[in-house]
What does this fold into?
Amino acid sequence: MGKKLFIKTFGCQMNVYDSARMTDALASSGYAPTASVDDADMVVLNTCHIREKAAEKVYSELGRLRQMQEERLRADGSRVLIAVAGCVAQAEGEEIVSRAPYVDIVLGPQTYHRLPELVAEALQEDGRPLIDIDFPAEDKFDHLPEEAAPQGVSAFLTIQEGCDRFCTFCVVPYTRGSEQSRPVEAVLAEARRLVAAGSREITLLGQNVNAYHGEGPDGRDWGLGRLIRAVAEIDGLYRIRYTTSHPRDMDDELIRAHRDVDSLMPFLHLPVQSGSDKILAAMNRRHTADDYRRLVDCLREARPNLALSSDFIVGFPGEADEDFAATLRLVNDIGYSQAFSFKYSPRPGTPASSTAEQVPEDVKRDRLESLQQLLRAHQETFNQTQAGQVLPVLIEGEGREAGQLVGRSPYLQPVHFSAPIHRIGQIADVAISEVLTNSLRGEVVIPRTGSDGPSELRVGI
Ligand code: SAH
Ligand code: SF4
Ligand code: F3S
It folds into this structure.
């Protein structure tokens, strides 16, 4: 007992959530988390396969771990277990151990509940790597222990996993498998436990989260809109978010939730990938750029202060100058408050990777640069609109400077501010005085009660 576990997480929020659940699973095997890889008895790399660069990082990281493993063996004879989990593990399986034979365990995202057995086995066998990349019939959530460590003010909760949309560039349907939704009661119970442990904001996660259709207590399938209304009933939960959604799965019930549920934040990550109908069709997104514009209109009608974010891919096979121009037009039409953009990266096994019309690297680079310049300009414009306003900020912790606190605006912008009263987990009204590209600064607004000076910070939304 008394062994130490270090998990390094790559990729999306779901991997962050999964790493926390792997930590819970390994607690029963006697592993406690450590912040330093150097004193770990077991290291897990929780990997991402979405783009080539992400996947390659794993091997450079493994090279470093091998050195550490050898040094520890020499120094005190101890054996450091190395596990590769996540989407690279799922996609590459055997190949990982042939490139890195010192890896002890390879396991995919659907078998984390088997970690304790795998670890016990790995410690007995000498050296033979164990590979478990099944898509098992049993549901890992039924076999994982309840969350042990509190997640903090802002927590993630996976409600849906996998994807059936098969966008032609994307590995997720292969690495995460087919779309599965957790039952409503399981989600609500976990949300209540998170709030009881101190979380005030929950981000509901799924690879295609708005395709959620979990079984409700009434035996019927509930959509995400209905689930959000139920989550919003939990006392002490101030903010709800969800990510990542597909435009095609945005139904009326969910749009109405944006109108009716105050704690559902007015910020939505709604990836569009491209503004060209030709490219959208080739990506198998199954909507046009105008469908997306209309959807955003409906959402803004439901929630006039809604800010949007997106993902974009430039240089998808066959993307001509006019297709890219259509993407820039769409960006200008929507006006995103922030967005992510990537060069297309051909991924093994995906349909788009084998098409002939690959876009040259220098064209991808130039397009990415112009798109990012435009997106940055939009982000700055959006941030400027906050200057002089009072924003409710959920306080997440202390800032870098003494006496400073840091939290998030409803639009997910980090806000740094000073406040006389220190209350992590509460909402402060902050007057924004300074706007930077990626964050805001301000001072807390103290509500006056008569003449007797500052009162409590505001609690709640
Ligand atoms: N579940 C998320 C996708 C996760 S991947 C969703 O459906 O939105 C996050 C982003 O990575 C995608 O939105 C896309 O913009 C980008 N991406 C995915 N595959 C890619 C590839 N092969 N090359 C470049 N970017 C990619
Ligand atoms: Fe990948 Fe998202 Fe498309 Fe699913 S919807 S295939 S996760 S990009
Ligand atoms: Fe990466 Fe897997 Fe998430 S490929 S983005 S870690 S679902």
Observations:
- The longest strand covers residues 390-398.
